[in-house]
């Protein structure tokens, strides 16, 4: 059977060779840790500790602020120093709990471990996932207990593990699949308990043949699981693109994956589900990649959330040359950072340090109507036209030309020979249009 994929897309430099062979090592944080209350889509968490309180590692410090929200736990033991707005990776000031780490890492303990997860009811599984603070750890941070509670669970036919890791440079999911694949398969088995009519599919790009072989070996004889080999192409890990590649079903911005009979979770999220249900552990750690040609020792770290990015850079040997650009996330969809004194969160998948800022080196010129952005767009849009509407502030035309279907992958800007900021113009206009629609609904 041939490799599965989606229409259009691009093939950027992968850069994975920098960190792919670096085993996961743990980094213990030092000093002050910051825990933003908005580490997920939905309502911010609500602090349940006060300044001066002593907290333990694994202790809940903020409860969910609603159904679409998620609790937050301390990843260290120490003292609550402040509850105040702090800067996060995207540049916003977010209300945060600041904890002075005592560096004893005293664990609260008493986690509710389960010997046989098959004895748990569906409600017990979802409550454990909710209570542990599991969110989508590959991108936007959508609370996982909400995703696992669709209106019609019997109509879910596919649980898709997003093992594509299509962003250049990122290798954290790859190391998870190589080093702890049993936890990934264990998490998939737990999720499949919720959906009796579903099949578990591990969608992996073919640039990870050893991970494909390892997972195939692990699930041999499992009737409800399979590995789907995907063509290495960006953005193969986009939710809509992954669903189309695996199932042939298409969804748009007005639909949820559940409308196509699918639920999609990434590797780190499924492993977090495993630890939440099997071991009763809250989300306080994750694996992240620290990489780029400006980093001395590109690495994959298991770190405690709240650790500042600067400490991860230090753990990777620091800079071998002063970077011109530092990105939180991958180069295609990540956020450029102006400071390393920023806390890591549940969704911090990578920090990328580049010796040259290739984007800043170019001066945009006029669109030459070459159509390359159209050929690259995975949503089959006309990005150059949408960017023009964005520049003109023409919301009606932007929406009429399906601008809200943009997934903000950046393919259009990447292929543009005129080096125009196509994706940025569309992204800004999309935000303004959605804000206007919300205003009208109110």
What overall geometry do the principal axes of the alpha carbons give?
globular
Largest sheet: 6 strands, mixed
**Distance between the terminal alpha carbons, to the nearest Å?**
50 Å
Give start-end ranges of low-pLDDT stretches: none
Evaluate the radius of gyration.
21 Å
Q: Roughly what fraction of the amino acids lie in strands?
A: 15-25%
The helix content is 25-40%
Total helical segments: 13
Structural class: alpha/beta
Order of helices and strands: EEEEEEEEHHEHHEHEHEHEEHEEEHHHHH
* Arithmetic mean of pLDDT: 94
Write out the strand line-up for the largest beta sheet, numbering strands in chain order.
1-14-13-17-15-16
DSSP summary, beta strand count: 17
Q: Could you please describe the fold and organization of this structure?
A:
It is a single chain. This protein has 442 residues and is α/β, with parallel strands linked by helices. Helix content is 27%, strand content 19%. The protein has a six-stranded mixed sheet. The radius of gyration is 21 Å and the shape is globular. α1 crosses α7 and α10 crosses α13. The protein has 13 helices and 17 strands.
Question: What are the salient characteristics of this protein?
Answer:
442 residues, alpha/beta, six-stranded mixed sheet, 13 helices, globular
Give the helix/strand layout.
Elements (H helix, E strand, L loop, with lengths): L23 E4 L4 E5 L9 E2 L6 E2 L4 E4 L8 E2 L4 E10 L5 E9 L20 H10 L12 H4 L10 E5 L9 H8 L1 H14 L4 E7 L3 H10 L6 E6 L8 H9 L14 E5 H12 L6 E7 L7 E6 L4 H7 L9 E4 L6 E2 L13 E5 L17 H5 L6 H10 L2 H6 L10 H5 L6 H20 L1
Parallel strand pairs: 1-14, 9-10, 9-12, 10-11, 13-17
Antiparallel strand pairs: 2-8, 3-5, 4-7, 5-6, 7-8, 13-14, 15-16, 15-17
């Amino acid at each position: 059977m041939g490799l599965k994929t989606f229409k259009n897309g691009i093939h950027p430099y992968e850069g994975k060779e920098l960190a792919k062979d670096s085993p996961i090592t743990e980094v213990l944080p030092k000093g002050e840790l910051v825990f933003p209350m908005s580490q997920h889509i939905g309502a911010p968490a609500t602090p349940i500790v006060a300044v001066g309180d002593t907290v333990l590692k694994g202790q809940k410090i903020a409860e969910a602020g609603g159904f679409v929200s998620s609790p937050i736990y301390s990843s260290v033991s120490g003292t609550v120093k402040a509850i105040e707005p702090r800067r996060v990776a995207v540049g916003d000031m977010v209300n945060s709990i600041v904890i002075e780490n005592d560096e004893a890492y005293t664990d609260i303990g008493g986690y509710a471990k389960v010997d046989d997860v098959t004895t748990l009811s569906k409600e017990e599984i979802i409550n454990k996932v909710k209570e542990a603070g599991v969110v989508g750890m590959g991108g936007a941070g959508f609370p996982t207990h909400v995703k696992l509670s669709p209106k019609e669970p019997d109509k879910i036919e596919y649980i898709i593990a997003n093992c594509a890791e299509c962003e250049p440079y990122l290798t954290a999911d790859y190391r998870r699949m190589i080093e702890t694949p049993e936890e990934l398969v264990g998490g998939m088995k737990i999720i499949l308990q919720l959906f009796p009519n579903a099949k578990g599919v591990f969608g992996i790009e073919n640039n990870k043949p050893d991970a494909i072989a390892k997972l195939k070996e692990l699930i041999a004889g499992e009737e409800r699981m399979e590995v789907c080999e995907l063509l290495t192409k960006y953005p193969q890990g986009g939710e809509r693109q992954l669903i189309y590649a695996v199932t042939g079903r298409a969804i748009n911005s007005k639909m949820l994956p559940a409308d196509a009979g699918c639920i999609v979770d990434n590797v780190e999220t499924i492993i977090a589900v495993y630890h939440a249900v099997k071991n009763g552990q809250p989300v306080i750690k994750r694996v992240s990649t620290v990489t780029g040609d400006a980093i001395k020792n590109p690495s994959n770290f298991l770190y405690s959330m709240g650790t500042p990015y600067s400490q991860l850079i230090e753990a990777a040997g620091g800079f071998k040359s002063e970077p011109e650009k530092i990105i939180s996330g991958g180069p295609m969809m990540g956020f450029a950072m102006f400071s390393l004194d920023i806390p890591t969160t549940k969704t911090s998948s990578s920090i990328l340090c580049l010796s040259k800022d290739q984007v800043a080196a170019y001066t945009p010129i006029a669109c030459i109507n070459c159509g390359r952005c159209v050929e690259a767009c995975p949503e089959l849009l006309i990005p150059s036209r949408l960017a023009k509407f964005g520049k003109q502030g023409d919301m009606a035309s932007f929406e009429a030309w399906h601008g809200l279907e943009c997934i903000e992958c950046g393919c259009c800007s990447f292929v543009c020979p005129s080096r125009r900021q196509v994706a940025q113009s569309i992204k800004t206009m999309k935000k303004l249009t959605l804000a206007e629609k919300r205003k009208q609904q109110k």
